[in-house]
Specification:
7-stranded mixed β-sheet, 8 helices, about 220 residues, alpha/beta, single chain
C-alpha cells in the first residue's frame, strides 16, 4: 500500500519521479532562479507538499541562508526529508496545504506537484493558505499537472506523455495507472484556470514560469 498520495512510496519516489514527469529537475532550477532574482538575502521559505525535501536540499546549495519550513501530509515523506537534510536548521511539520495556519511569515512559498490532489474547492482553500502565509511582496511558486484547453488537444498531450513514459522504462501497467489517475486521484486544470484562481485569491502579479507536456509552473507576487 502506498504511504502518500503520489504514485510511488516515499522510499523510491526520487528514483522514479524523473521517469514520470518530463524535465522534473527543471522545476527546481526555475524556482531557485526566481528566488535568487527576488533580492531576498535570507528568505523565510515554506515548501508545502515538500515530499522528500529535494527542493530544499538544492536551494540551500544556492541560497545557503534560506530558512526553511517543510510541510507534508505524509509522515514517510517527511522522514525521507529529515534524513536528506539532517543537521540543517529546518522546521518540519506533518500538515497538508489545506491545513496551514501561517500568517505573513514567509518571503517564499512553494508547492511543487502537490495541489493537483485537491478538488476545485480544496485547491482554492490550499492556495489561499499559501497566500496568507506570505509577507507582502513575497512570491508563491507552484508546479502542477495540467489539462489542455480542449479535449482534442488534451488527447494529443496524453499521447505525448504516454510515449515519454514508455521511453523511460515504465511498464504498460504503470502507464495505465498514471493515465487512469487523471480525474480520479489527481485533478489537473488548465493554465487559464490556474491564472484565474491566483488572481481571484488576490495576487497582484501572476505569471507563467514554465510549461511542457502536461505540467506547468506559475509564480505570483503578493
Amino acid at each position: 500500500m502506498n504511504d502518500n498520495k503520489s504514485a510511488y512510496n516515499s522510499g523510491i519516489y526520487d528514483e522514479h519521479i524523473v521517469n514520470v514527469l518530463p524535465y522534473y529537475r527543471e522545476y527546481h532550477k526555475q524556482v531557485i532562479d526566481v528566488v535568487k532574482n527576488m533580492g531576498f538575502e535570507a528568505p523565510q521559505w515554506l515548501d508545502t507538499g515538500c515530499g522528500t525535501g529535494t527542493l530544499a536540499a538544492k536551494a540551500l546549495e544556492v541560497v545557503p541562508d534560506a530558512r526553511f519550513t517543510l510541510c507534508d501530509p505524509s509522515e514517510n515523506m517527511l522522514a525521507q526529508a529529515k534524513e536528506k537534510l539532517q543537521n540543517r536548521n529546518i522546521r518540519f511539520l506533518n500538515v497538508p496545504s489545506d491545513k496551514l495556519e501561517f500568517n505573513d511569515e514567509f518571503d517564499v512559498v512553494t508547492a511543487i506537484q502537490s495541489h493537483h490532489y485537491f478538488d476545485e474547492a480544496g485547491r482554492e482553500h490550499a492556495v489561499k493558505n499559501c497566500y496568507r502565509a506570505l509577507k507582502e511582496g513575497g512570491v508563491f511558486m507552484t508546479f502542477e499537472n495540467i489539462r489542455m484547453d480542449t479535449d482534442e488537444s488534451d488527447a494529443i498531450a496524453l499521447k505525448r506523455w504516454v510515449k515519454y513514459l514508455e521511453e523511460h522504462g515504465n511498464s504498460s501497467e504503470d502507464v495505465r495507472m498514471h493515465i487512469e489517475r487523471r480525474g480520479v486521484e489527481v485533478f489537473p486544470i488548465t493554465i487559464e484556470k490556474h491564472i484565474k484562481l491566483l488572481k481571484k485569491i488576490g495576487f497582484r502579479s501572476v505569471n507563467i514560469l514554465w510549461s511542457s507536456y502536461l505540467q506547468a509552473g506559475f509564480w505570483a507576487i503578493k
